[in-house]
Design brief:
The first copy, chain A, has about 150 residues and is of the alpha/beta class. The first copy, chain A, has helices at about 15-25, 40-45, 75-85, 100-110, 120-140, and strands spanning about 5-10, 30-35, 60-65, 90-95, 115. In chain A, helix 2 runs parallel beside helix 3 (about 75-85). The longest helix of chain A has 18 residues, at about 120-140. The two termini of chain A are about 15 Å apart. The interface of A and B includes residues 108, 109, 131, 140 and 141 of A.
């Protein structure tokens, strides 16, 4: 489980820092791949552009996906993940500051496994990352590699 | 979220007891509805059989679903949950002792939100605790 990768799709640098720190503090030592926009996330998953040649059968254990992203937004990334046979079953957790009902419904309709609002409070955010990490890395069983 | 019920679909009485106790120990006080087979689960969700007349607009916070069940099995229950507009987005966690790849793949393929192995006694209580905290407190459920 330790070798499994977390794919974080997030463009806000202070959120990235916060998530990294929260994972470290909780001894969640899995490698964290950060994609700062939707294109980078898709490149990682499908081995294109800067990730050309990556063995794309090595899937992340979980994808933490922000919704508002440059270039390709989170819902579009989710759609592409679900449409590709290789990644169609991959656990995707939406991690967003959006509290719009429409984002919530769209995310679940497109097949998000879970939807989490980023707590504004620093300590609560850290606690949320801890719970989230432990749940998806230790408790949940991700689909097997194809 | 505190007032919402948890629907547990489980036919093994010792597992039911264990889950109840783990929820109580962790101050997860949501009402627990237990359905002991797939038919009972669907009756609860869709207000049929013994649950005729129940207000089916009131949906559970989450469903904990075993796979091997009498009468209608877990995958069939999941299929029916996803096929009905009322319950199509309802969080469903598979909670099973099956570690067969085909069950994992089928569960995710049919739209399970999460797949959890029942492990040994002590870890199981901890698993139920994490599961409750995650889905009842952290996760934002779809609203109707």
């Amino acid at each position: 489980m330790k070798n499994k990768v977390i794919l974080l799709v997030e463009d806000n640098s202070s959120d990235i820092k916060l998530i990294k720190r929260a994972l470290e503090q909780n001894q969640i030592t899995n490698e964290l791949i950060v994609a700062e926009d939707g294109v980078e996330a898709l490149d990682y998953l499908f081995g294109t552009s800067q990730y050309a040649g990556r063995d794309i059968r090595d899937l992340p254990t979980v994808v933490l996906l922000d919704l508002k992203l440059p270039r390709v937004d989170g819902l579009e990334v989710l759609k592409k993940i679900r449409a590709n046979e290789l990644t169609s079953l991959l656990p995707v957790v939406i991690l967003t500051s959006s509290d719009q009902e429409q984002d919530l419904i769209s995310s679940y309709k497109l097949g998000a496994n879970s939807y989490i609002r980023k707590p504004v409070d620093f300590n609560r955010f850290t606690e949320a990352v801890r719970t989230l990490g432990l749940y998806w890395l230790l408790l949940n069983e991700s689909p097997p590699r194809k």
